[in-house]
Design brief:
Layout: E1 2-5, H1 12-21, E2 26-29, H2 32-36, E3 40-43, H3 49-56, H4 60-68, E4 73-76, H5 78-81, E5 84-87, E6 99-105, E7 114-122, E8 136-141, E9 143-147, E10 153-158, E11 162-169, E12 172-175, H6 183-196
Parallel strand pairs: 1-2, 1-3, 3-4, 4-12, 5-6
Antiparallel strand pairs: 6-9, 7-8, 7-10, 10-11, 11-12
Length: about 200
């Protein structure tokens, strides 16, 4: 079962609807046992890093166990940020620390939030990007990630600076954009995640 973690900080219905459009059944839950039993986990996110980590604390160990077991994981937007060690938004609150690195605010002079459609520039092979080229995806965020491991960046978008847009490492995938709000090409991202399950 593909399981979406309901921790009070996500566009759960639109994400569930996106999977329904490609014929995939998903479970939206806040129950620890159902999260533990998931074949694949999705961590969506909208809002502030600190509040999200506070709400996520009860599931933190389950998420880490899931990832370390090699089962597929997808983080979306804030769900991507939470995978990192820390965020400038709430520096005193540690993240999940799956990826070493930090989340920083978009630089002065850039319109904040970064909102709208931006084109991907793919930099490495990633199952999430199968059949995807330089299409446009929908972004809305004020912070972006700086991974210490640069080789996990599978695609960037140009916002005057290169913003990591897709991360890919083994069974872990994450997008800065919202695939569920990115039309047909966004649904292809979700389908690729489902296909990765085999």
């Amino acid at each position: 079962m593909i399981t979406i973690i309901n921790y009070g900080s996500g566009n759960l219905q639109s994400l569930k609807n996106g999977f329904s459009k490609i014929g995939a059944e998903v479970l939206v839950t806040d129950q620890a046992q159902e999260i533990e039993e998931a074949n694949a986990l999705i961590l969506p996110g909208v809002g502030a890093f600190g509040n999200a980590m506070h709400n996520l604390k009860q599931y933190q160990e389950l998420i880490i166990q899931h990832i370390e077991s090699g089962k597929p994981f997808l983080g979306i937007c804030l769900g991507l940020h939470l995978l990192f060690s820390q965020s400038a938004e709430t520096a005193e609150v540690p993240g999940l620390d799956v990826f070493p690195g930090e989340v920083i605010r978009l630089p002065p002079g850039k319109k904040i939030p970064h909102m709208g459609w931006n084109q991907l520039r793919i930099s490495k092979n990633c199952p999430l990007l199968d059949g995807i080229g330089s299409e446009y995806f929908y972004f809305v965020h004020s912070y972006y990630v700086l991974p210490q491991e640069r080789n996990i960046i599978a695609a960037v978008c140009d916002y005057g600076i290169d913003i990591p847009a897709v991360l890919c490492k083994d069974n872990i995938f994450a997008t800065q954009f919202h695939p569920e709000k990115s039309g047909k090409v966004g649904l292809n991202i979700l389908k690729n995640f489902v296909d990765f399950l085999g």
